[in-house]
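CORE FACILITY INTAKE
Project code: CF-77B
Contact: R.S. (postdoc)
Sample description: multi-component assembly, two entities in total
Requested service: structural model of the whole complex
Turnaround: standard
Below are the sequence entries exactly as provided by the requester. Do not edit them.
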Amino acid sequence: MHSRPMIAYARVSKSFGPTKAVDDVSLDIAEGEFVAVVGSSGSGKTTLLRLANRLIEVDGGTITVEGEDVHNIDPVALRRRIGYVFQSGGLFPHLSVADNIGITPKLLGAPLADIAARVDELLELVQLDRAAHRDRLPETLSGGQRQRVGVARALAARPRIVLMDEPFGALDPLTRDALGEDFRELHRKLGLTTVMITHDMTEAILLADRIAVMRSGILLAQGTPAALSESGDDYVLELLRTPRRQVERLNALLPRSGAA
Amino acid sequence: MSFIDDPRWGEALSHLPDYLGNHVRVSLAALALGLIVSLPLAILTRNRPAPRGILLALASIVQTVPGLALLALFYPLLLATASLTLALFGASFSAFGFLPAMLALALYSMLPVLRNGITGLNGIDLALIEAAKGVGMTARQSLVMVELPLALPVMMAGIRTAAVWVIGTATLSTPIGQTSLGNYIFAGLQTQNWVFVLFGCFASALLALAVDQLLGLIENGLRLRSRLRSGLGAAGILALVAATLVPWIARSSPGYVVGAKTFAEQHVLSALLRERLQASSLPATARSGLGSSVIFQALKAGDIDLYVDYSGTLWANQLHRTDIKPRAELLAELKASLAKENVTLLGELGFENAYSLVMPKQRAEALGIHSIADLVGHASTMSIAGDYEFFSRPEWAALQKAYGLQFRTQRQMQPDFMYAAVASGEVDVIAGYTSDGLIAKYDLVVLDDPRHAIPPYDAILLLAPKRIGDEQLQAALKPLLGKIDIATMREANLRAAGNDATSSPDVVAKWLWEKIGKR
């Protein structure tokens, strides 16, 4: 069973006009794996993610999810079974926290009582106080709280796969660190398969089991952080050198005794 | 008698259920139709720039057409459609009153609804539409659950603008036969009844304000997710509709519908005709303030049963004749032509209301002017004023041709203001009406027409085709024929032009009947 990947990209291509956003990419993601796709803006990493739940359609190649060609799955049904966390939340401003979280179960026709119970369960899971947050509108929440609601919404219909589009990018460093750790824990506890887009190699190294590096639509390298450093590609090595350099400089600048 | 306890306030109030009810019905029906058409169009074209541009351009063009013209245009348009459906399907509909008014007003309401609808829908953050897709919404679910609720405040603002416009513009639907609060304004302006004018303006302003506030309540309720507020707003609108529907459903048959054009003499004659019918136990109602071209078509179509027109008007406008015949000959020929269309020319009332050139008596004497021919030498230094249609009528062309008249300037005026304008020297000559009571009041003189350029304008009583064999009706009206001479009509018109309670058309009509009934 474990031999079959949860998500498999096979020679996938996508162009927007003359630009090849994704160019002949093949990538397998195993069940329970946490994969980060790293690249600068315009590298094609967001396109790669959106192809998986058919927010964008492929030009060539095939993508399978749980062994099924996504082309043969109704896109609406496909999206309802894959959790998606949007950049800076993507919460609906006119709906309360509870209504935002319960939206996918509602679309699936779940009974209202079940949705309410599930919402409470999820608020607890993402560590938000039920009474204080349930009926609030998104605009009254902090950035970190909004993103926690975004995660809860993605998990509401009990998906086995979660796609995350730069989920922590717009947050302050402390919140970002806490949220990353918390999600990593959720991923483990719920047995999710997660693909996360980020431009931040440090975040990728700290959270992901495996990292895929994209540049100009091409998948340059993939592997564990350790395996990546064996890569012969200059760009990949440069990406890895940056966090290392930062650590060295931080160590030099911060007094050892004060560090945690 | 002070302005406050003027009995005309009471008279105005007595018309309110009818006028307000009709006004609410036509406005809200037009608004509803406008919304039913505009909202789907806004939704359909929100992501299609080309059709959206065309649609908004068309709606803007409609908006630049003055409300009065738009309403007037719908009447002949529907009349043509009605005769087409009669020819094709053997069934027809009334092109008079409610239908043309509602359609024109609905068209008028479309621009703000469309523009705000499209702006509201296009203003939504694309990331949210993407998120709607991402959580598994279909296109329809995205529209209903995300896009429309987010566009709602902007859309509601458009709907509120449209409501205010439609309620305001609906006052202009009186001339095409739709009773509205405009009846106060049109009748009031014509009979110098400022109580009516003020009453009509205030009533329509209050109605617009009330509907705007109720829609605002709905908007707030939807925005704040308060069922109470939106419920109260919707209940208010429904109560308004119900309040106007009940008397409408319960109303009795209108009986004979007596038409009247826009000016005071017509209001007096309509009141006289209704009084005579009621005296013979024939129920009668009024449809007043109708446009000159609308009224004859309305009679032919049976939307009104009878009214008074003038022989020269029909001669030129309906028969399209430019030649001029002596009074009796013209009448005989007109009667025969109308009979072919099953319209009965019952007879003349006895006076003529012709266009004629009028100026102050003293000035005319000083200049030695007795007839239009004497005017020729002075015309190039003089200004002339006429009503809105005079200078485009065949009479004016005939006058210019017969006498070689060339005035320095030509001005168009509200008929009631012309007489005061010529009396004060604001203009030198006016194209007045020979039966107008103001001629005597301002000491004006009607200039002779020795070359007979202006056709005779006998006041004639016309009956609709459906009343062709109605002997009861004809018997009730016969006592009026030939009884009203020009001096009596002028005096009646002068009374009607007063600005107090004794000048209401009903009171003047009673006076008129007392004067002529014994003849």
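Facility notes:
- The mean pLDDT of chain B is 87.
- Strands of chain B lie at 256-259, 284-287, 306-310, 344-352, 355-360, 383-386, 409-412, 429-433, 444-446, 458-463.
Invoice: internal transfer
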